[in-house]
Description:
binds phosphoenolpyruvate; transferase; Phosphoenolpyruvate-protein phosphotransferase; kinase activity; 13% strand; metal-binding; binds magnesium ion; globular; 8 strands; magnesium; alpha/beta
Amino acid sequence: ERKAALTASVGPGATSDGHKVPLLANVGGPGDVPAAVEAGAEGVGLFRTEFLFLEDGRRPPSEAEQVEAYRKVLEAFPEGRVVVRVLDAGADKPLDFLTPADEPNPALGARGLRTLLDHPEVLRAQLTALSKAAEGLPVYLEVMAPMVADRADARAFAQACREAGLNGKYGVMVEIPSAALRARSVLQEVEFLSLGTNDLAQYAFAADRQVGAVSRFQDPWQPALLDLVALSAEAAAAEGKSCGVCGEAAADPLLACVLTGLGVTSLSMGAASIPYVRAALAKHTLAQCERAAAAARAADSAGEARRAARAVLSGE
Ligand code: PEP
Ligand code: MG
């Protein structure tokens, strides 16, 4: 019966009253594309490009190798959106040829955009390869930077995109609380935001995402995390720009309704979760999602927030 209900739920993501929330897939490379297409993803919301660089940790892939891999993913979503994240090396994704070996706190050191700004040739080559890969395709290319802390970071990334002649939109991930707190300022430099809730939780709660002993802080239902999501979504709305979520939070059907209620404009997740999220959204109106979001934010713990949202959405 559950399977039948899911099969019946196809088409674009939307609430029961027709508020559209594009459902996008997180992919790690061309191998993940068939499952995304099968699940009815409306595009890719997070293309983690690290896989290409991890194949040979001693050197970056050549431009030709990059163009070929990017093109395979871009071709799979004609007319769709594909959001590509530039290399996020460091901390939980170390790369021999880029990541400093002697940092006491790698998660707080050179990683993500910071690493790319220290190695501008790697960023330039990747942006050029992305532009070439999208040439002649009807796809809507968007490129974003991980680990952006402030407006200066956003400006440096935007400048690199312009210098590389990037043919598409550029945006930044909100993974550091400072970027959420000052989202309007960050948005003066770029065209969209995408919330990486895994890292946002890590940095908001000072809890290493790789340390099991503090794993309770990775729970995306924490009201403080919901507050940071709300701040970012409100800032994007005020600037007339989009704010998606591409962290694990988007894969939880109940939380997807809450994120929608907080003003998030698209949800990106592992392909397997898309049918469940689509079905959950289709059962509730935007106003119900907003009430669930308000109830969750009024809670004092992750557990309470989850129960409060569930009570609102199932009691209606
Ligand atoms: C995140 O941090 O939420 C995210 C989407 O990026 P990653 O998990 O790859 O760091
Ligand atoms: Mg991240």
